[in-house]
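Exercise 3.2. Students should predict the tertiary structure of the chain below and write it as structure tokens, then compare their answer with the key that follows.

Predict this chain's 3D structure.
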Amino acid sequence: MMSHTLVVHPGEMAALVGRWETFVRTRVLPHEVDDVLQAAREVVLTRASQYDPRRGEPGAFVFGIVRMTVKLTVSRRKSLWQLTTNLDHYVENSMSDASKGVQGDPLAFLVENQNVAEWVSVVSAAASTFEWQVVLAFAETDGSSAVVAEALDVPASTVRAARSRVAALVQTVRAALQARDDGIPVVLQRCLPPEGGFREVFELWDTDVDATAERLRLSQATVRRTRALIKRMSEVVASV
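Answer key:
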């Protein structure tokens, strides 16, 4: 059986995304255009190795990704209220909330909070397109990482990692909104999740990655990922 080979460089494929800028502009809000195009380029770079020349031109492959990215963006925006209804069954048996000392389910937090519209808005803006796709997939399935992974055609470990990032973002949003409502300064260090090593990594922010990894006995990759997420958390806190 003849195996297919990648005949176009991933960077060249990502550049093709620009062909459909007009398509994107006519389907999303003006402020969403650049984010949609960038998200599509990132997906193309990630999935370029899956391109099969036997199934069509590179442009068709790229357009499929652009179209799906647009669909997800529109779905994210339209789901702000709808999501809260769809999640009721999913969160019914979720873990108890963090106030009881247990890290609660991120989606449960969204549903159970009184100001759910604001919660969903802030978290959906902070989450990446893929992370929000995972959130929606959990809402539409039985809540199994394996089922979501199959639906999205990604490894279960990727789904779990995305869900973990959303959980951390939700906890940050929860703490920031609570601080704001209590009339106290909304400070990043106070809003960081108590679990997951975020506060420990933040305390060593001015230390290089190697030294931080050695001090905390973490891998360098873990430190980099944690720092990247903390940067996103800082943007969330600044927006509250």
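Discussion points: The first helix runs from residue 10 to 15. The radius of gyration is 20 Å.
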